[in-house]
Write a structure and sequence with these properties.
With about 325 residues, this protein is an all-alpha fold. It has helices at about 1-15, 20-40, 45-55, 70-115, 125-150, 160-170, 185-225, 230-235, 245-255, 260-275, 285-295, 310-319; strands at about 295-300, 300-305. Helix 2 (about 20-40) crosses helix 3 (about 45-55). The longest helix has about 45 residues, at about 70-115. It holds the Pfam family Ion_trans_2.
């Protein structure tokens, strides 16, 4: 019996890890849409997939939407689940694969620049991210120019190149006006993939721009000259306004640069003070031993509760 079940266990093993659960969540999301919309509005599974992707990427063309009261109630819940949960899973998976391509492109740009003798430091990752987004827009515009323009037949887009470029940018930026209808199923099928890639690339590009701004702010903070007034502001020790410690300087610079919040620094320092039972300003074996003992000594000499497993291990180490 065990020999029979072992292959089945290996077959089901992917479903028990993180990726397996993510795939199951995505399948349930799209199949749920198809089950509901096919019964209420007669949509095919590909039409439901198109609706689901347009929804979770927040593009929202409006060409496929709820027509009934029950449909609007379902869409309300579907949007909430899709935008908050499913989008993070799906876009995260796409981003993981695209980031590898971005890294390779950035490295290639850097190597070509070094080969040509350009030794200046440039934002290669930002350039690679923007290049991939631009390439994606060009690919989307090219496909739609033929699919809805030149091959569109009667009712096709009037200005294929301009309309396709317009559609590609409106879609990639998740604006989604919906004024250019997709008249062919092939265009909607292409949009399913294009939407996922373009929205991920846009998010990545914006993230790089924001990170660049934060990095510039950090450089500005580090390069500035200190004044007596700034030292007094950085000092957290009462009565020591004319001097600051390494910790005070570090925490002040990190907070001002936007790397951490002041509340985070205060919480970390408070935790240090809690562990520093001897109040020596440093952590040593004695502090760790006494901190472990405080878990089960509420008052000196009176044991109120059993020590935790972690406390026992710490105490055994120092015996």
């Amino acid at each position: 019996m065990g020999e029979i079940l072992r292959p089945l266990g290996k077959l089901l093993e992917p479903l028990t890890d993180k990726i397996g659960w993510q795939l199951m969540a995505l399948a349930a999301y799209f199949l749920g849409a198809w089950a509901f919309w096919h019964r209420t509005q007669g949509w095919s599974i590909l039409e439901s997939l198109y609706y689901g992707v347009v929804t979770l990427t927040t593009v929202g063309y409006g060409d496929y939407c709820a027509k009934t009261r029950s449909g609007k109630l379902f869409a309300t819940a579907y949007i909430g689940i899709g935008v908050t949960l499913v989008a993070s899973i799906l876009v995260g998976a796409v981003a993981k694969n695209l980031s590898a391509a971005e890294e390779r492109l950035a490295q290639r740009l850097k190597e070509q620049a070094e080969t040509s003798g350009d030794k200046t430091t440039k934002p290669w990752k930002e350039l690679a991210s923007f290049a991939l987004l631009l390439l994606n827009i060009v690919v989307g515009a090219t496909y739609m120019a033929f699919s809805e323009g030149y091959w569109g037949g009667k009712g096709g887009w009037e200005h294929p190149i301009v309309d396709a470029l317009y559609w590609s940018v409106v879609t990639a930026t998740t604006v989604g006006y919906g004024d250019l209808p997709l008249n062919h199923a092939r265009s909607r099928h292409f949009s399913v993939v294009y939407l996922l890639i373009s929205t991920t690339l846009l998010t990545d590009c914006i993230g790089h721009v924001a990170a660049r701004a934060v990095a510039a702010k950090k450089e500005k903070v580090l390069a500035r000259e200190l004044s007596p007034e700034m030292i007094r502001e950085m000092s957290t020790i009462e009565g020591a306004g004319s001097e600051i410690t390494r910790v005070e300087y570090l925490s002040s610079v990190l907070v001002e640069a936007g790397t951490v919040e002041r509340t985070d620094v205060d919480a970390i320092l408070a935790r240090f003070d809690e562990l520093d039972v001897c109040r020596s300003g440093t952590l040593d074996e004695a502090d760790i031993r006494m901190a472990a003992m405080k878990e089960f000594y509420d008052t000196p000499g009176i044991i109120k509760k059993e020590p935790s497993t972690r406390s026992r291990k710490l105490l055994d180490r120092f015996r």
